[in-house]
Amino acid sequence: MHELSSLTVIDDKLLPFDQKSVPGFLSGILVELIAGWKFSAVLCSINTFYIGVCWYVEACINDLQSIFDEIDAFLTANDGDENNDNGLTKFTLRRSLLEAVDFHKRILSLIENFASLVDGVIFLTFSGGTVWLSTSMAQFMDINIKLFQPAVSNFLILVWLFVYCFYGNLITWKCLQVADFAYHSKFYNYPNDLKIFTLLMMERSQRPFYITGYKITKCSLESYTRFLNTALSFYMLFRNLW
């Protein structure tokens, strides 16, 4: 019995911070606060950049739609007569269409560069989040006050991934929307040599564009559901093993 208590005392002293003493407890809290602050700073900066770029892409696509709306308004006002000298001339119409095509190309280039920039973060967040969520959930078999920290971590991971998937899904939907408003425009009244550019724009926009993690995982609401299912499957596996 004496040997057992001695071992317990030795084990407690081997801990980085002795939780049974006030200085050790406060030191442990201080380290946790610093680690939490750094994690929050990184989380907020990455998410702010990610959300900001997604909002910018959404605004660019809305501006692209407004260009088509202005061209359609001109064609409607002039009964489709592109040689009418009132308002927008034929030269200005062609210039507006070429600007729309070039703007669409620059939007796609922006999305591709953004996707290549965040693909590593997306992959690590999905893979690490799955492992962490499944293993930490296995601790919930025994309700304890010490489960507060893993519960908060799980909540942050779920919110973090939901932000990625929600705004990644937004970009995918907005890219598909380009084909929709280009198709419903009066492209049949455009100059013959520019109709092909509008058709190519519609054809390119019909292919979904996803923000991915090394082409393995993609940011969409469907992927978020699969992530939850995968984490739950691993949790059930760990629970049966333990």
List its traits.
242 residues; mainly alpha; Glutathione S-transferase Yfyf (Class Pi), Chain A, domain 2; two-stranded antiparallel sheet; 78% helix; 2% strand; elongated; disordered N terminus
Q: From the alpha carbons, calculate the radius of gyration and give it in angstroms.
A: 28 Å
Q: Roughly what fraction of the amino acids lie in strands?
A: under 5%
Helix % is over 70%
Catalogue the unreliable spans. 1-15
Q: How many helices in DSSP terms?
A: 6
Give a count of the beta strands, DSSP E runs of length 2 or more: 2
What general form does the structure show?
A: elongated
SSE succession = HHHHHEEH
Could you give a short account of the major beta sheet? 2 strands, antiparallel
State the distance separating the first and last CA atoms.
29 Å
Structural write-up:
The chain has one domain (51-241): Glutathione S-transferase Yfyf (Class Pi), Chain A, domain 2, CATH 1.20.1050. It is elongated and about 85 Å long. The chain has six helices and two strands; from the N terminus they run αααααββα. With 242 residues, the protein is an all-alpha fold. 78% of the residues lie in helices and 2% in strands. It has helices at residues 2-14, 22-77, 90-137, 148-183, 192-205, 221-241, and strands at residues 212-213, 217-218.
